[in-house]
Amino acid sequence: AAILAAPGTASAESTDVELIVGHAHVSGSAAEGEVYINDAGRTMIPLRIVSSAMGYTTVWQPDGSIRITSPDGTVDVSLAVGKLDYSAGGQSGRFETAPTLRHDRTYLPARDFSELYGSIYWDGDTRTVWIAQGAGVSYQVIGNKLLRADEAGARVLALPDGLRLRSGSLLIDREAGGARYVAVQCDGGHAKPLQLFRDENGALGYLTDIYASAFWVEGDRVYYTNGMGASGWIDPSAQNRLYETTLVRHAGDQLLVVERLGDVVAGSQFEPLDDVFGVVITTVGIIGVLLIY
């Protein structure tokens, strides 16, 4: 668990901070608990609302300690206000700063909070805290930055030369064939396609442009739908079309050009669903694929 960056010294407390837990924007209040930056410049995280957003249970114990558990048993944390010692998963640890009370809510500095809850990233440009749950790979767009979190922590990913992430870009990611892929909007506005990248342990390689939709990668073929009618670039009257793009390579297996082959399936043969959809295709020279979004 790790935190990439922290704010500099502040002169007074501030609650003008946005909190993202996983992919959900979480709002709070002084009564419920809210992220704030104290007069020492530390970002303070409210335990209860973050635990609730993650689906965890927070219980005050008879001895005054606080126990936080997850339904699957992977999280079992005990700590106490004003004490540096804590336990997580049966292992003892020690915070740099003890949990504190504010408006009767328990807070922990973000740097110590990451010892319990996975990776935490602070973006000073947008005054945003992102908490990435668990040790798996996850992505988030904050401002014009694309972030990747894993068991080593959270960090900003560099796009290939010549590409710049559009601020507030859409983001679609998935794992296919043992590889990870992420699609975002680079430059332009909402009416532009997404750029699809293969993620090689944090190094992004551009593949092709796709609609803002579900996609699947099979070898040198990329399959994607016609989107969800979210902008003028997408044809909302043809959302039941499945497209195929072939990645053409030269010697050395380096990507040379991208060739769009057009519609694979059209009309009533293909009816996408909101979450899971499949395509059953006969042997008329077309491959059958299963797409999960």
Structure description:
By secondary structure, the chain is mainly beta. It is 5% helix and 44% strand. The chain contains two helices and 26 strands. The strands form seven sheets. Strands 5-6-7-8-9 form a five-stranded antiparallel beta sheet, with helices on one face. A four-stranded mixed beta sheet has the order 2-1-13-12, covered by helices on one side. β15 and β16 form a beta hairpin.
Distance N to C terminus: 28 Å
Radius of gyration: 22 Å
The proportion of strand residues reads: 35-45%
Count of DSSP strands:
26
What general form does the structure show?
elongated
Strand order in space, largest sheet? 5-6-7-8-9
The stretches of 5 or more residues where confidence is low (pLDDT under 50) are 1-11, 229-237, 250-293
SSE blueprint:
Layout lengths: L17 E4 L2 E3 L9 E2 L5 E4 H7 L3 E4 L5 E4 L6 E4 L5 E4 L2 E4 L5 E3 L2 E5 H8 L1 E5 L4 E5 L5 E5 L2 E6 L2 E5 L13 E6 L2 E6 L9 E7 L2 E8 L4 E4 L2 E5 L16 E9 L3 E12 L10 E3 L11 E3 L1
Parallel strand pairs: 1-13
Antiparallel strand pairs: 1-2, 3-4, 4-11, 5-6, 6-7, 7-8, 8-9, 10-11, 12-13, 14-15, 15-16, 17-18, 18-19, 19-20, 21-22, 22-23, 23-24, 25-26
Keywords:
disordered C terminus; mainly beta; single chain; 293 residues
What is this structure, in a nutshell?
This protein is mainly beta and 293 residues long.
